[in-house]
Amino acid sequence: MGKNFHEIKEIKGFEPRSVMYAEQINEDFGEGLAGFYKAIWAEREGGLSIKQKHLTVFAIACSNNNTDSAVKILQKLHQFGATRAEITDAMMMAAWTGGIQNFTDISSVILKEMEKHGY
């Protein structure tokens, strides 16, 4: 496992399966994919914080009606100290971009998960 792979584990807190699979296919491919993760999730001066990045991907998952992903990201948002207002703002933005039907479909699952986390 290369340098990027170990750095992404520090940044994300886990070893992404896609990177592990890519590494099994080809070492350079694995390093390249790990570098992609690193570039996206690393905090940069003047850039989005990790929490803001998770809020963004949460809104995208909700707008795409990807409930499984949204629930996983909600768990990360809880770890990074997101507030109820931040999460609900992201959900409302998802309703704006993904349509009210996606919002309706995903909201019941997300609201139940939010209750589990004390929101």
From TrEMBL:
GO molecular function, one term: peroxiredoxin activity
Gene3D superfamilies reported in the protein's UniProt record: AhpD-like
InterPro entries: AhpD-like (IPR029032), CMD-like (IPR003779)
Top EC class of this enzyme: lyase
Pfam families xref list: CMD
Keywords: Lyase
Domain of life: Archaea
EC number: 4.1.1.44
Residue ranges occupied by any Carboxymuconolactone decarboxylase-like domain in the UniProt entry: 28-104
Protein name: 4-carboxymuconolactone decarboxylase
